[in-house]
Amino acid sequence: MEAIKFDPEICNQCETVDCLMKCQYIEFTDVAEAKTEKLKINAGEHSRVLDECLTCYACQEYCPYDNNPFYLLVERQEQLGLLPAPTPIVTEQLKMMGPKGKIQKEAVTPPVVNMCAFPMLTGSVRGKLFEGASVIVGTDIFCNIMWLHFAKNSTIKERVPKMIDNIMDYYLRDSGVDEMVCFHDECYGTYTNLAPAFGIEVPFKSIHLFDYINDRLDELADRITPLNVKVAYQRPCSNRLIPETDPVLDEILEKIGAERVPRTYDRENALCCGGVPRAHQRDDLADELVEKNINDMLDVGAAYCIFNCPFCMATLGQEVAENGIMPILISDLVQMALGE
Amino acid sequence: MKHEEILHRCFRCGYCKLPSNYTDINCPAYQAFRFETYSPGGRMWLLRGWLNGEITNSKRFAEIMFSCTACGNCVEQCAFPKFRDLLLEVFTAGREAFLDAGHVPGPVRDYLTKIQLHGNPYGKPGKKRPEWAADLGVEPYADQEYLFFVDDVGAYDTRGQEIARSVAGILQQAGISFGMLSGEEVSDGNDVLAIGETPLFEELARKNIEVFNQKGVKKIITLSPHSLNAIKNHYPALGGSYQAMHYTQLLAFSMGNMSLQEDGPNHRITFHDPCYLGRHNWDYQSPRMLLKGLPGASVVEMDRNQKNAFCCGGGGGNFFTDLVSAEEDSPSRVRVREAAETGADYLAVACPMCAVMLEDAAKVEGLENRLQVKEVTEIVAEYMVGA
Amino acid sequence: MKELIDRLKKIVGDRFVSEAPEERYIYSMDMGTMPASAPDLVVMPASTEEVSKIMEAANAHQVPVTPMGGGLVLSGLTRALKGGMILDMKRMNRITEVNPKSRYAVVEGGTSQGMLQAYLKKNHPELKHSVPDAPPIATLAGNVCIHGSGHLSVLGGYHSDMLTGMEVVLPTGEVIRTGSCSVSSDWFGKAPLPDLSGLFMGWAGTTGVVTRLGIKLFPSYRYNDLLIFVCDDAEDMPDVISRLTSTQVAEDMTPWMTPIPEWARGFMHINIAYGAHSKAELTFKRNLLQMSVKAYKDKKTGGFLPMPPPQKNRYMKIPTPDLVRFADVRKGGGFEYVGAIMAIEHFAEAYRAGVEIAEKNEVSYSMGARIVGAGHSMMFFYAYAFNRADQADMARAQKALEETNAATLEMGGIPWKAELPAQQQIIEKMAPDTFALMNRIREALDPNHIMNPGNWERA
Question: What distance in Å separates residue B318's CA from the closest CA in chain C?
Answer without folding.
Answer: 19
